[in-house]
Design a protein that fits this description.
single chain, 171 residues, mainly beta, four-stranded antiparallel beta sheet, globular
């Protein structure tokens, strides 16, 4: 089979509308890439665009990334990504924001990298520990740090500790 689609073929029926969102990717080898990620304009489980956290936790291993200053995207392997940092606005879900959920302040270590921020425990009350959040399905943990969300590859986390100054339930 070749890549030819034949005369008169129409791709337009197969394209999924995407939104470009600014992101910084820290790769496992230490490289830092700044550019844009392509988020689906419509989520399957809620109204609006797919959140960056949902997108990174999608089971697909590879994703396109458009580096700043380049005209075409590159393909990155999620398993080689340490952290993807996006604007909190790119990860906003108005429906989830209306539901109170416990928030814990944590330090997350990935080797020499240390991040501090909040994690939202949006799980049943009998699974409301940070440990439960880390062990739930999904390859990335969302560590919220003010106007930025750090999507941390859980397979690369070496240590997490909960801090005493946790803010309590999410407003």
């Amino acid at each position: 089979m070749t890549g030819d689609r034949g005369a008169g073929s129409d791709d337009h029926g197969y394209r999924v509308p995407r939104l470009l969102r600014a992101a910084e990717v820290l790769c496992a080898d230490g490289r830092v890439l700044r550019g844009r990620v392509f988020l689906p304009a419509a989520a399957e489980s809620h109204p609006g665009a797919m959140r960056a956290e949902e997108w990174m936790n999608d089971p697909a291993v590879f994703f396109p990334f458009l580096p700043d200053g380049e005209g075409s995207p590159v393909i990155l392997n999620k398993e080689q990504v340490l952290v993807v940092t996006v604007s909190a606005a790119a990860d906003r879900d108005d429906t989830m924001d209306q539901v109170p959920a416990p928030v814990r302040r944590v330090n997350v270590e990935c080797g020499a990298l240390r991040l501090q921020g909040d994690v939202v425990i949006d799980m049943p009350i009998n699974h409301s520990r940070v440990l439960d959040l880390l062990n739930r399905p999904g390859a990335f943990l969302n560590v919220r740090d003010g106007d930025r969300h750090h999507l941390v590859c859980k397979a690369r986390v070496t240590r997490v500790n909960e801090l005493a100054d946790a803010p309590g339930p999410r407003p």
